[in-house]
């Protein structure tokens, strides 16, 4: 009998390269030199292939922000106290955060999911309550999650992707909120890449040199304690991951199963992608790396995944802010593809043979 996770993975098929060819033919027929709009053309062709539609709509976009806390904050690895996580969730719901501003710019909705915040919100308009636990445990002393919790959180992410597809969403973006979450993200980067912890660990919310050294030591201690096996992605996620990272991994798998592109944000979201693609390599064709974070481990993650970021704006906020900008670029690419005249339509002479 197939488990829910194996059923989900079985639904994922790589985008059909024949659709890429059809899209490129149209792009080459538009009133411009072939390839002159660079990566906008790549984006447009990828979107057509993902949707398997010669003129796919792009009317509804959604950023799904998963929020969760982390027990490893007790080790003193963050510049901010844990209560900022729930305070920022309220800020998201009021529309006052960076992701709200950039999502409005991209004409995208923001969905906020409490998947593991150490706070009781009560009924809050706009908040999706899917709390798996009140945060992860301290990975430096015990596994961050049980295997069952990691799976449950991953399936929450897949459920939010299915709900988006059922709601007519055309493109998804992944965001995060969780004080301390660059620590598990760096641990996952080291575990899946084999790179030294010091090479993939950054300063997160802006920690000093001494705290950074301590953070590296904490991650090394966790990896030594748990010895996560990258060939067991769910076990690795449970050992040194986090609930919002698991939710993002599930969102990626659900988006791929539903043939929707998933715009990746920065360090935290890409940690989720490391898990997702180890579980289902076929999901790679649905991922678009929106930007490169200044977190040093992000470049390592992108290299492992074989993804090339659209922009490098020296961002490191998280929340899905870089992914929201990626949605704006996807919209621009889509409009080029659907609205620009062909040489024949415009009565413009094509390039001489």
Q: Could you tell me the mean pLDDT?
A: 96
User: Total domains, how many?
Assistant: 2
**Helix content range of the residues, please?**
40-55%
Following the backbone from N to C, one meets helices and strands in this order, namely: HHHEHHEEHEHHHHHEHEEHEHH
Structural class: alpha/beta
N- to C-terminal distance: 59 Å
Q: How are strands sequenced across the largest beta sheet?
A: 3-2-1-4-5-6
Beta strand %: 5-15%
Number of strands: 8
How many distinct helices?
15
In CATH's first tier, which class of the largest domain applies? Alpha Beta
Q: Which outline best applies?
A: globular
Model description:
The chain has 2 domains: 4-56 and 338-346, Nicotinate-nucleotide-dimethylbenzimidazole phosphoribosyltransferase (CobT), small domain (5,6-Dimethylbenzimidazole Phosphoribosyltransferase, Chain: A, domain 1, Orthogonal Bundle); 61-332, Rossmann fold. The chain is 50% helix and 12% strand. The protein has helices at residues 4-10, 17-29, 38-51, 84-94, 98-105, 147-166, 182-193, 197-200, 209-226, 233-240, 243-257, 267-279, 296-305, 321-339, 343-346, and strands at 61-68, 108-116, 127-129, 171-177, 262-264, 287-289, 291-293, 311-315. It has a 6-stranded parallel β-sheet, sandwiched between helices. Helix 13 (296-305) links the parallel strand 7 and strand 8. Helix 6 crosses helix 11, helix 7 crosses helix 9 and helix 7 crosses helix 13 (296-305). The model has no long low-confidence stretch (mean pLDDT 96).
């Amino acid at each position: 009998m197939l488990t829910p996770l194996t059923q989900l993975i079985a639904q994922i098929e790589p985008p059909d390269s024949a659709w890429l060819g059809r899209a490129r033919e149209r792009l080459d027929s538009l009133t411009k030199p072939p390839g002159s709009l660079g990566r906008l053309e790549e984006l447009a062709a990828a979107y057509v292939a993902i949707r398997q539609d010669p003129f796919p709509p792009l009317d509804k976009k959604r950023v799904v922000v998963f929020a969760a806390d982390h027990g490893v904050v007790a080790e003193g690895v963050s510049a901010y106290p844990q209560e900022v996580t729930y305070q920022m969730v309220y800020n998201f719901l009021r529309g006052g955060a960076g992701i709200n501003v950039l999502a409005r710019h991209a004409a995208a909705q923001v969905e906020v999911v409490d998947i593991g915040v150490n706070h009781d919100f009560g009924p809050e308009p706009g908040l999706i309550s899917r709390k798996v636990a009140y945060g992860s445990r301290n990975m430096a002393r015990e596994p961050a999650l049980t295997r069952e919790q990691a799976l449950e959180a991953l399936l929450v992410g897949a459920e939010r992707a299915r709900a988006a597809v059922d709601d007519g969403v055309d493109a998804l973006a992944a965001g995060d909120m969780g004080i301390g979450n660059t620590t598990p993200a760096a641990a996952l980067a080291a575990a899946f890449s084999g790179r030294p912890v010091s090479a993939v660990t950054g300063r997160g919310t802006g920690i000093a040199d001494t705290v950074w050294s301590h953070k590296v030591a904490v991650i090394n201690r966790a990896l030594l304690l748990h010895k996560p096996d990258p060939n067991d992605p769910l076990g690795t996620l449970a050992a040194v991951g986090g609930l919002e990272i698991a939710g993002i991994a599930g969102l990626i798998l659900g988006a791929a199963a539903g043939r929707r592109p998933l715009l990746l944000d920065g360090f935290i979201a890409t940690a989720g992608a490391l898990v997702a693609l180890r579980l289902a390599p076929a999901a790679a064709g649905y991922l678009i790396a929106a930007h490169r974070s200044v977190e040093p481990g992000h470049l390592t993650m992108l290299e492992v995944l074989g993804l090339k970021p659209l922009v490098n704006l020296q961002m490191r906020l998280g929340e899905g802010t870089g992914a929201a900008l990626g949605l704006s670029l996807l919209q621009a690419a889509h409009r080029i593809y659907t609205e620009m005249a062909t040489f024949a339509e415009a009565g413009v002479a094509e390039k001489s043979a």
